[in-house]
Design brief:
Strands 3-2-1-4-5 form a 5-stranded mixed beta sheet. With about 110 residues, it is an alpha+beta fold. The protein has a single domain, classed as SCP2 sterol-binding domain (Nonspecific Lipid-transfer Protein, Chain A), CATH 3.30.1050.10.
Length: about 110
């Protein structure tokens, strides 16, 4: 069954951050995810704070903003960085802010995937 985007941000990411907060230090950035569609929403993933957090809504000042549809983001969760790169180059994944931080997304996906 396909991974729910809401379950990914509301359950899986917070669970990993709670049990393994040290993994967030590898990324050490604040991301804003804006996912469109029925399974979408907006989440702030703060991998700088202690403890690291993943909360619904837009909070603070994100260093990197990621925008995609729920279907495309599900594909990225399941397909990893190769899927993310394909979505980015096809214009289906939009990244704002620091583009270097977007390359660290694979660590976040692997942590919660």
């Amino acid at each position: 069954m396909a991974t729910s985007v809401k379950a990914f941000f509301d359950e899986r990411v917070p669970a990993v951050l709670k049990t393994s907060p040290e993994k967030a230090k590898d990324v050490a950035a604040v991301y804003l995810f804006k996912i469109s569609g029925a399974d979408g929403g907006t989440w702030t993933v703060d991998l700088v704070s202690t403890p690291p957090t993943c909360v619904p809504g837009e909070h603070g000042t994100p260093q990197c903003t990621v925008e995609a549809s729920d279907a495309d983001f599900r594909g990225m969760i399941e397909g990893g960085m190769q899927a993310a790169m394909a979505l980015f180059f096809s214009g289906k994944l939009k990244v704002g802010g620091d583009p270097i931080l977007a390359t660290k997304l694979s660590k976040l996906l692997q942590m919660a995937g």
